[in-house]
Design brief:
- It is a single chain.
- Helix content is about 35%, strand content about 20%.
- By secondary structure, it is of the alpha/beta class.
- β9, α8 (about 225-240) and β10 form a beta-alpha-beta unit.
């Protein structure tokens, strides 16, 4: 039985330091130093653990770009074309946010990948980042996402027509900008606790965006993104021919388990609808 794993790679750490500092998602939960020691005590070698993360003869750090986290689902089936969720983390976080949230979305339905925001967050601890909001930063992020998706598609069975962008807070804002600027690349976008910035024109590519699915949600007490603002944005998108869905949560500016469950239901409902339409 193949178990889910998540991997986050930064070239400043060697293999042993990676395993002891970051662990893996070998059981669907974060593997800390105690479980790593238990695996080693059972006779599992460092190379065997890395091979579980690899899915090929080539070491994963040779092909996975730096500052990237990867999630492979439980019981990965090479013959099935998996949807891919590209997660853009919230402000004050990093690509490793994926390691915690993907099992809460689903431990078996998707391959997941996350990249690190380009800017250190001045309001957070060292090692935590955020996304810029300028057109050039949006362009750079879109290119980085392409560079991450490509090697994953070469090594795992990804359905190229089911690549979804998703994010929270500052990451939700960037996800919307990238998805709306490059509609041909994504099946939809889920934005939680964030909207596009005021200087962004969301419908510049409205013809290509028609029928694009968009999940938009925020907490009832979110001080950064109000439900009224989300509803107005959804009305605009609906008028342009997109398919927005709005969710309101009993929460402040926080990423909740209910939000992640809704992401799973929203993606799967779109896949089911596509099958029915055939």
């Amino acid at each position: 039985m193949r178990r889910p794993y998540s991997f986050s790679f930064d070239s400043t750490f060697d293999r042993m330091n990676f395993l002891s500092a970051y662990g893996t998602h070998a059981t669907g939960q974060f593997v800390g130093s105690d479980e790593l020691e238990a695996l080693l005590a059972e006779g599992v070698s460092i190379d065997d653990i890395l091979q579980e993360l690899d899915n090929s003869e080539e070491p994963i750090e040779n092909w996975l770009p730096e500052r990237t986290a990867l999630f492979i689902p439980e019981n990965y089936e090479p013959r099935y074309a998996y949807p891919l969720i590209v997660w853009l983390h919230s402000e004050g976080s990093s690509e490793r946010q994926l390691l915690d949230l993907m099992p809460k979305i689903s431990d078996r339905n998707y391959i997941g990948v996350s990249i690190r925001g380009a800017l250190p967050d001045p309001n957070a601890l060292p090692g935590q980042y955020r996304w810029g909001q300028t057109p050039s930063q949006c362009f750079a992020t879109a290119n980085e996402i392409d560079n991450v998706i490509r090697p994953i598609q070469e090594r795992f069975h990804v359905n190229s027509s089911r690549v979804y962008l998703a994010g929270f807070g500052n990451g939700a804002s960037m996800a919307l900008q990238v998805a709306f600027s490059h509609p041909e690349r994504f099946a939809g976008v889920a934005a939680l606790g964030g909207l596009w910035p005021k200087n962004f024109t969301p419908l510049a590519n409205y013809r290509e965006l028609r029928e694009t699915r968009v999940l938009m949600g925020t907490g009832r007490n979110d001080s950064q993104t109000s439900i009224n603002a989300v509803s107005r944005a959804a009305h605009l998108l609906h008028a342009a021919g997109l398919q927005p869905a709005v969710r309101e949560y009993d929460a402040s500016h926080e990423l909740t388990a209910e939000m992640l469950t809704d992401v799973n239901h929203w993606v799967m409902s779109g896949i089911s609808s596509a099958y029915i339409a055939r």
